[in-house]
Specification:
Elements lengths: L1 H14 L4 H30 L11 H5 L22 H27 L13 H18 L8 H21 L3 H6 L1 H24 L5 H13 L2 H11 L7 H15 L1 H7 L8 H32 L5
Helix pairs in contact: 1-2, 2-6, 2-8, 2-9, 2-10, 4-5, 5-11, 6-10, 8-9, 9-10
Length: 314
């Protein structure tokens, strides 16, 4: 949704494309719908076939109802601060608030230097999440470096993340311009369906070929590609309710890396996309995909070589 607002507003101003923001929000919201319409049945199939790593996800009665029975409800989180001082949940919200304020000031500081350049879209408030994520990763690294990470409860942060994601997805769906959707439902539905099918084929085929956490990674990346990081985490929670695997952390670094790997698309190509001939758009995307496949092949071969050189445990 953030990118839809940023690029839609830019295209409306620069190229006089009517309803660009509305169409962008429609596709962004339909991406969430597609992620769950395809991802949830796929997650159930993975659980039924036991293709996941088995870190808590199962098709039991609690899963089917969506509610835990009273005695079987698991505990989550621990108190970090004494309640007489400040509530532990408020303390963790405050940590996120500090990261928010730092990100806000960081964007205000950088914006004058990139205004009017191709970098302006990257450092806009509509991509606040990406910059906030980098700030949070840096803050956590500093806390761990000075042995202060013990004062952050990961389970509490997971609950904050889960609640925020649920609210974000709901708000995105409510932002749809239904009058516009009703008027152009046929081409919108056709594009959304084709993109969903291709994305599902790529993500699940590649994910299920992995030897470690393949199902979790394939399902999560499908949710990210269709919607956002939030929808990816929601799907991951079906297979890994407690986010105990490394996939959630990998997702954080993925969102940082994608800024650099797709920089030419986000910063250079996307802002002027309406002025680029279709053939050039196709060629640029094909070249990007080809480079990505080559990079994956090279990294995969190197990692396989590293593992093969490790001595067998006695």
């Amino acid at each position: 949704p953030g990118q839809a607002l940023a690029l839609g507003d830019l295209w409306t101003t620069a190229y006089n494309i009517q309803h660009a923001v509305d169409f962008g929000l429609i596709y962004a919201s339909l991406g969430f719908v597609a992620a769950f319409a395809v991802g949830v049945p796929m997650a159930r199939w993975i659980l039924k076939k036991n293709l996941h790593s088995g870190r808590g996800g199962s098709l039991d009665q609690d899963f089917e109802r969506g509610l835990y029975s009273g005695d079987a409800a698991p505990a989550s989180g621990k108190l970090i601060t004494h309640s007489a001082n400040v509530d532990s949940f408020a303390f963790h919200i405050g940590l996120l608030g500090c990261a928010y304020l730092i990100t806000d000031q960081y964007l205000k500081l950088v914006h004058p230097f990139v205004a009017g350049t191709h970098f302006e879209n990257i450092f806009s408030y509509n991509l606040f999440f990406f910059h906030g994520l980098m700030i949070c990763v840096g803050l956590r690294a500093l806390l761990d470096r000075f042995n202060l990470g013990q004062f952050v409860d990961d389970e509490t942060q997971k609950r904050i993340t889960g609640s925020s994601v649920d609210l974000m997805v709901t708000a995105s769906l409510l932002s749809i311009n239904f009058a516009l959707l009703t008027q152009f439902w046929q081409p919108i539905l056709l594009v959304a369906s084709l993109v969903t099918l291709v994305t599902a084929a790529l993500c699940f085929t590649a994910g299920l070929r992995l030897k470690t956490l393949g199902a979790e990674r394939g399902l999560t990346i499908f949710g990210c590609c269709c919607g956002s990081t939030g929808s990816g985490i929601l799907l991951l929670r079906i297979l890994d309710p407690n986010l105990a695997s490394s996939v959630a952390k990998e997702l954080a670094f993925f969102n940082i890396a994608i800024l650099f790997l797709s920089f030419h698309i986000l910063a250079i190509m996307a802002p002027i996309l309406p002025s680029i001939p279709v053939i050039w758009i196709i060629l640029i995307y094909l070249a990007t995909a080809g480079f990505g496949l080559i990079l994956v092949q090279l990294l995969g071969s190197k990692m396989s070589g590293d593992y093969s050189q490790k001595p067998e445990p006695r």
